[in-house]
Amino acid sequence: MGEDGVVTSAPQCPDGPTPMPRLIATDLDGTLLHDDKSVSQRTVAALAAAEEAGLEVFFVTGRPARWMGVVSDHVQGHGLAICANGAAVVDLHSVDPHSTGSPTGREFVQVRPLPRITALKVVEALRAAAPGTSFAVELTTGINYEPTYPPFFQDTGANVATAEELLHEATDDDSAPVLKVLAHHAELAPDEFLTLARSVAGAYASITRSSPTSLLEISGLGVSKASTLALCCEERGISAAEVVAFGDMPNDVEMLDWAGTSYAMGNAHPDVIAAASGRTVANNEDGVAVVIERILAERAARART
User: Fold this and answer.
1) Which one of 141, 182, 219, 225 has the minimum C-beta count within 10 Å?
2) Minimal CA–CA distance to 289: which of 50, 10, 36?
3) Cβ atoms of 60 and 23 closer than 8 Å
4) How far apart are CA 90 and CA 68, in angstroms?
Protein backbone atom coordinates (compact mmCIF):
# COMPACT_ATOMS: atom_id res chain seq x y z
CA MET A 1 0.00 0.00 0.00
CA GLY A 2 1.36 3.41 -0.94
CA GLU A 3 1.87 6.31 1.41
CA ASP A 4 -1.45 7.79 0.27
CA GLY A 5 -3.33 4.67 1.34
CA VAL A 6 -4.04 3.42 -2.18
CA VAL A 7 -2.87 0.07 -3.46
CA THR A 8 -1.49 0.43 -6.97
CA SER A 9 -0.08 -3.05 -7.46
CA ALA A 10 -3.26 -5.13 -7.53
CA PRO A 11 -3.22 -7.72 -10.37
CA GLN A 12 -5.91 -5.90 -12.34
CA CYS A 13 -4.76 -2.35 -11.54
CA PRO A 14 -4.17 -0.22 -14.63
CA ASP A 15 -0.58 0.85 -15.31
CA GLY A 16 0.43 4.49 -15.12
CA PRO A 17 -1.45 7.42 -13.59
CA THR A 18 -5.09 7.13 -12.60
CA PRO A 19 -7.27 7.88 -15.69
CA MET A 20 -9.10 11.19 -15.56
CA PRO A 21 -12.73 10.26 -14.84
CA ARG A 22 -15.96 12.08 -15.55
CA LEU A 23 -18.06 10.32 -12.91
CA ILE A 24 -17.51 8.90 -9.43
CA ALA A 25 -19.88 6.12 -8.34
CA THR A 26 -19.72 5.18 -4.69
CA ASP A 27 -21.51 2.75 -2.45
CA LEU A 28 -22.54 4.07 0.97
CA ASP A 29 -22.54 1.55 3.84
CA GLY A 30 -19.07 0.17 4.45
CA THR A 31 -17.68 2.44 1.74
CA LEU A 32 -18.42 6.18 1.86
CA LEU A 33 -19.97 6.08 5.34
CA HIS A 34 -18.11 5.37 8.54
CA ASP A 35 -19.43 2.47 10.58
CA ASP A 36 -21.46 4.92 12.69
CA LYS A 37 -23.22 5.99 9.43
CA SER A 38 -21.59 9.42 9.42
CA VAL A 39 -19.88 11.18 6.52
CA SER A 40 -16.53 12.65 7.53
CA GLN A 41 -15.66 16.25 6.81
CA ARG A 42 -12.75 15.01 4.73
CA THR A 43 -15.14 13.03 2.53
CA VAL A 44 -17.61 15.93 2.24
CA ALA A 45 -14.74 18.18 1.14
CA ALA A 46 -13.44 15.61 -1.36
CA LEU A 47 -16.87 15.19 -2.98
CA ALA A 48 -17.33 18.95 -3.22
CA ALA A 49 -13.86 19.35 -4.74
CA ALA A 50 -14.59 16.62 -7.29
CA GLU A 51 -17.73 18.38 -8.43
CA GLU A 52 -15.96 21.74 -8.55
CA ALA A 53 -13.45 20.07 -10.88
CA GLY A 54 -16.30 18.97 -13.16
CA LEU A 55 -16.79 15.36 -12.03
CA GLU A 56 -20.29 14.00 -11.46
CA VAL A 57 -20.95 12.06 -8.25
CA PHE A 58 -23.49 9.24 -7.98
CA PHE A 59 -24.42 7.49 -4.74
CA VAL A 60 -25.07 3.84 -5.66
CA THR A 61 -26.54 1.84 -2.78
CA GLY A 62 -28.71 -1.03 -1.68
CA ARG A 63 -30.55 1.38 0.61
CA PRO A 64 -34.13 2.40 -0.18
CA ALA A 65 -34.86 6.04 -0.99
CA ARG A 66 -36.29 6.69 2.47
CA TRP A 67 -32.93 5.80 4.07
CA MET A 68 -30.94 8.38 2.09
CA GLY A 69 -31.04 10.92 4.88
CA VAL A 70 -27.50 9.87 5.81
CA VAL A 71 -26.19 11.77 2.78
CA SER A 72 -28.99 14.22 1.95
CA ASP A 73 -27.36 16.95 4.06
CA HIS A 74 -24.21 16.61 1.97
CA VAL A 75 -25.84 16.75 -1.45
CA GLN A 76 -24.16 19.31 -3.65
CA GLY A 77 -24.63 18.88 -7.38
CA HIS A 78 -24.81 15.11 -6.88
CA GLY A 79 -28.57 14.95 -6.57
CA LEU A 80 -29.14 11.57 -8.18
CA ALA A 81 -28.85 8.32 -6.25
CA ILE A 82 -29.20 4.78 -7.52
CA CYS A 83 -31.07 2.97 -4.74
CA ALA A 84 -32.23 -0.58 -3.95
CA ASN A 85 -29.32 -2.13 -5.88
CA GLY A 86 -30.32 -0.49 -9.13
CA ALA A 87 -34.10 -0.86 -8.90
CA ALA A 88 -34.66 2.90 -8.52
CA VAL A 89 -33.02 6.17 -9.46
CA VAL A 90 -33.99 8.94 -7.03
CA ASP A 91 -33.59 12.71 -7.17
CA LEU A 92 -32.31 13.73 -3.73
CA HIS A 93 -32.88 17.40 -4.52
CA SER A 94 -36.60 16.82 -5.07
CA VAL A 95 -38.40 16.91 -1.74
CA ASP A 96 -42.16 17.42 -1.94
CA PRO A 97 -44.02 16.87 1.37
CA HIS A 98 -47.23 16.30 -0.59
CA SER A 99 -45.74 13.58 -2.80
CA THR A 100 -47.51 10.21 -2.80
CA GLY A 101 -44.83 8.43 -4.84
CA SER A 102 -42.35 8.08 -2.00
CA PRO A 103 -42.57 8.12 1.80
CA THR A 104 -39.73 10.69 1.75
CA GLY A 105 -41.33 12.82 -0.94
CA ARG A 106 -38.33 12.31 -3.21
CA GLU A 107 -38.97 11.81 -6.88
CA PHE A 108 -38.37 8.43 -8.46
CA VAL A 109 -36.67 9.30 -11.74
CA GLN A 110 -36.62 5.67 -12.88
CA VAL A 111 -37.98 2.40 -11.49
CA ARG A 112 -36.89 -1.08 -12.60
CA PRO A 113 -39.39 -3.29 -10.76
CA LEU A 114 -39.38 -6.94 -9.83
CA PRO A 115 -42.54 -8.47 -11.33
CA ARG A 116 -44.77 -9.87 -8.61
CA ILE A 117 -45.25 -13.19 -10.37
CA THR A 118 -41.46 -13.55 -10.56
CA ALA A 119 -41.08 -12.63 -6.91
CA LEU A 120 -43.55 -15.35 -5.99
CA LYS A 121 -41.51 -17.91 -7.96
CA VAL A 122 -38.39 -16.93 -6.03
CA VAL A 123 -40.23 -17.15 -2.70
CA GLU A 124 -41.52 -20.60 -3.59
CA ALA A 125 -38.06 -21.81 -4.63
CA LEU A 126 -36.38 -20.53 -1.48
CA ARG A 127 -39.05 -21.91 0.85
CA ALA A 128 -38.40 -25.34 -0.65
CA ALA A 129 -34.60 -25.13 -0.75
CA ALA A 130 -34.03 -23.35 2.57
CA PRO A 131 -36.84 -24.01 5.05
CA GLY A 132 -36.99 -21.30 7.68
CA THR A 133 -36.41 -18.45 5.22
CA SER A 134 -38.45 -15.35 6.03
CA PHE A 135 -39.21 -12.52 3.60
CA ALA A 136 -39.80 -8.80 3.31
CA VAL A 137 -41.15 -6.91 0.31
CA GLU A 138 -39.72 -3.50 -0.56
CA LEU A 139 -42.14 -1.30 -2.53
CA THR A 140 -41.78 2.24 -3.81
CA THR A 141 -44.15 3.13 -0.96
CA GLY A 142 -42.22 1.36 1.81
CA ILE A 143 -41.45 -2.07 3.23
CA ASN A 144 -43.72 -4.86 4.49
CA TYR A 145 -42.61 -8.14 6.01
CA GLU A 146 -43.54 -11.54 7.37
CA PRO A 147 -44.15 -12.12 11.10
CA THR A 148 -40.88 -14.07 11.47
CA TYR A 149 -38.75 -11.55 9.53
CA PRO A 150 -36.41 -9.37 11.66
CA PRO A 151 -38.35 -6.08 11.89
CA PHE A 152 -37.06 -2.81 10.52
CA PHE A 153 -37.28 -0.44 13.46
CA GLN A 154 -36.80 2.53 11.12
CA ASP A 155 -39.98 1.58 9.28
CA THR A 156 -43.07 1.93 11.46
CA GLY A 157 -46.48 1.09 10.10
CA ALA A 158 -45.37 -1.78 7.88
CA ASN A 159 -47.90 -4.42 6.88
CA VAL A 160 -47.12 -7.80 8.42
CA ALA A 161 -48.28 -10.88 6.48
CA THR A 162 -46.89 -13.79 4.47
CA ALA A 163 -44.88 -12.94 1.37
CA GLU A 164 -47.60 -14.53 -0.75
CA GLU A 165 -50.17 -12.17 0.76
CA LEU A 166 -47.88 -9.16 0.48
CA LEU A 167 -47.23 -9.85 -3.19
CA HIS A 168 -50.91 -10.26 -4.03
CA GLU A 169 -52.29 -7.18 -5.79
CA ALA A 170 -55.47 -6.28 -3.95
CA THR A 171 -55.35 -2.52 -3.28
CA ASP A 172 -53.76 0.51 -4.88
CA ASP A 173 -50.94 0.45 -2.31
CA ASP A 174 -50.34 -3.26 -2.83
CA SER A 175 -50.03 -2.67 -6.57
CA ALA A 176 -47.11 -0.24 -6.07
CA PRO A 177 -43.98 -1.44 -7.89
CA VAL A 178 -41.87 -4.02 -6.07
CA LEU A 179 -38.26 -2.84 -5.90
CA LYS A 180 -36.86 -5.95 -4.26
CA VAL A 181 -37.63 -8.88 -2.01
CA LEU A 182 -35.46 -9.51 1.04
CA ALA A 183 -34.84 -13.06 2.26
CA HIS A 184 -33.42 -13.81 5.71
CA HIS A 185 -32.20 -17.07 7.20
CA ALA A 186 -31.25 -17.44 10.85
CA GLU A 187 -28.94 -20.46 10.47
CA LEU A 188 -27.25 -20.55 7.06
CA ALA A 189 -23.94 -18.75 6.57
CA PRO A 190 -24.28 -15.62 4.39
CA ASP A 191 -22.26 -16.81 1.38
CA GLU A 192 -23.74 -20.31 1.64
CA PHE A 193 -27.24 -18.83 1.55
CA LEU A 194 -26.35 -16.67 -1.45
CA THR A 195 -24.90 -19.59 -3.40
CA LEU A 196 -27.94 -21.75 -2.64
CA ALA A 197 -30.39 -19.02 -3.62
CA ARG A 198 -28.66 -18.35 -6.91
CA SER A 199 -28.64 -22.05 -7.73
CA VAL A 200 -32.40 -22.47 -7.24
CA ALA A 201 -33.74 -19.04 -8.22
CA GLY A 202 -31.02 -17.27 -10.19
CA ALA A 203 -32.85 -17.96 -13.44
CA TYR A 204 -35.76 -15.81 -12.23
CA ALA A 205 -34.10 -12.80 -10.63
CA SER A 206 -30.86 -11.07 -9.65
CA ILE A 207 -29.80 -12.14 -6.16
CA THR A 208 -27.06 -10.54 -4.09
CA ARG A 209 -26.23 -9.44 -0.56
CA SER A 210 -24.77 -6.41 1.20
CA SER A 211 -25.31 -7.33 4.84
CA PRO A 212 -22.83 -9.23 7.05
CA THR A 213 -25.79 -11.40 8.06
CA SER A 214 -27.66 -14.00 5.99
CA LEU A 215 -29.86 -11.41 4.31
CA LEU A 216 -30.32 -11.64 0.55
CA GLU A 217 -31.60 -8.91 -1.77
CA ILE A 218 -33.62 -10.03 -4.79
CA SER A 219 -34.22 -7.74 -7.78
CA GLY A 220 -35.58 -8.07 -11.28
CA LEU A 221 -33.51 -10.21 -13.61
CA GLY A 222 -30.65 -8.13 -14.97
CA VAL A 223 -31.18 -5.34 -12.44
CA SER A 224 -28.02 -4.39 -10.57
CA LYS A 225 -26.03 -1.38 -9.53
CA ALA A 226 -23.93 -1.88 -12.64
CA SER A 227 -26.74 -2.12 -15.17
CA THR A 228 -28.57 0.95 -13.85
CA LEU A 229 -25.35 2.93 -13.57
CA ALA A 230 -24.57 1.99 -17.18
CA LEU A 231 -27.97 3.32 -18.27
CA CYS A 232 -27.44 6.59 -16.39
CA CYS A 233 -23.98 7.00 -17.89
CA GLU A 234 -25.24 6.27 -21.40
CA GLU A 235 -27.80 9.06 -21.02
CA ARG A 236 -24.94 11.42 -20.20
CA GLY A 237 -22.55 10.22 -22.87
CA ILE A 238 -20.16 8.83 -20.27
CA SER A 239 -18.30 5.59 -21.02
CA ALA A 240 -17.37 2.91 -18.49
CA ALA A 241 -13.72 3.92 -18.95
CA GLU A 242 -14.58 7.35 -17.55
CA VAL A 243 -16.09 5.99 -14.32
CA VAL A 244 -14.34 5.40 -11.00
CA ALA A 245 -16.34 3.16 -8.64
CA PHE A 246 -16.00 2.18 -4.97
CA GLY A 247 -17.54 -0.71 -3.01
CA ASP A 248 -17.15 -3.30 -0.29
CA MET A 249 -19.76 -6.07 -0.59
CA PRO A 250 -21.01 -8.63 -3.17
CA ASN A 251 -23.75 -6.29 -4.39
CA ASP A 252 -20.94 -4.01 -5.65
CA VAL A 253 -19.09 -6.66 -7.68
CA GLU A 254 -20.81 -6.06 -11.04
CA MET A 255 -20.38 -2.29 -10.72
CA LEU A 256 -16.69 -2.57 -9.90
CA ASP A 257 -16.16 -4.97 -12.76
CA TRP A 258 -18.00 -2.64 -15.19
CA ALA A 259 -16.26 0.60 -14.25
CA GLY A 260 -13.03 1.51 -15.99
CA THR A 261 -11.34 2.06 -12.63
CA SER A 262 -12.60 0.57 -9.39
CA TYR A 263 -11.52 0.32 -5.78
CA ALA A 264 -12.27 -2.24 -3.10
CA MET A 265 -12.28 -0.81 0.39
CA GLY A 266 -9.78 -2.06 2.94
CA ASN A 267 -12.69 -3.76 4.71
CA ALA A 268 -14.08 -5.36 1.52
CA HIS A 269 -15.42 -8.87 0.94
CA PRO A 270 -12.95 -11.17 -0.90
CA ASP A 271 -15.16 -11.24 -4.02
CA VAL A 272 -15.02 -7.44 -4.16
CA ILE A 273 -11.24 -7.42 -3.87
CA ALA A 274 -11.05 -9.87 -6.76
CA ALA A 275 -13.37 -7.74 -8.95
CA ALA A 276 -11.79 -4.32 -8.34
CA SER A 277 -8.82 -2.94 -10.24
CA GLY A 278 -7.31 -1.44 -7.11
CA ARG A 279 -7.69 -1.11 -3.35
CA THR A 280 -7.93 1.76 -0.94
CA VAL A 281 -8.03 1.97 2.85
CA ALA A 282 -11.10 1.13 4.91
CA ASN A 283 -14.28 3.17 5.13
CA ASN A 284 -13.43 4.41 8.63
CA GLU A 285 -10.15 5.74 7.22
CA ASP A 286 -11.92 7.71 4.44
CA GLY A 287 -10.77 5.43 1.63
CA VAL A 288 -13.01 7.10 -0.96
CA ALA A 289 -11.69 10.55 -0.11
CA VAL A 290 -8.10 9.29 -0.30
CA VAL A 291 -8.58 8.22 -3.92
CA ILE A 292 -10.52 11.34 -4.95
CA GLU A 293 -7.79 13.56 -3.51
CA ARG A 294 -5.18 11.66 -5.51
CA ILE A 295 -7.22 11.91 -8.71
CA LEU A 296 -7.61 15.66 -8.28
CA ALA A 297 -3.92 16.10 -7.44
CA GLU A 298 -2.97 14.23 -10.62
CA ARG A 299 -5.41 16.33 -12.65
CA ALA A 300 -3.88 19.53 -11.24
CA ALA A 301 -0.38 18.27 -11.98
CA ARG A 302 -1.31 17.49 -15.59
CA ALA A 303 -2.82 20.94 -15.99
CA ARG A 304 0.47 22.51 -14.92
CA THR A 305 2.53 20.58 -17.50
Assistant:
1) 141
2) 50
3) no
4) 10
Query: Could you give the C-alpha distances from 291 to 65, 87, 90, 254, 298, in angstroms and in order?
Result: 27, 28, 26, 20, 11
The whole-number pLDDT of residue 272 equals: 98
Contact 81, 60 (CB under 8 A): yes
Q: Could you read off the pLDDT of 68-118 as tens digits, one per residue? A: 877 766 656 557 899 999 999 998 876 544 344 444 556 889 999 999 999
The pTM of the full predicted model, rounded to 2 decimals, is 0.88
Task: Classify burial at 121, counting beta carbons within 10 Å of its beta carbon; exposed 0-12, middle 13-18, buried 19 or more.
Answer: middle
163-191 residue pLDDT tens: 999 998 655 555 799 999 999 999 999 99
Burial class (CB in 10 A: 0-12, 13-18, 19+), 154: exposed
Instruction: Write the pLDDT tens digit of every residue in 261-301.
Output: 999 999 999 999 999 999 999 999 999 999 999 999 998 88
Contact 249, 290 (CB under 8 A): no
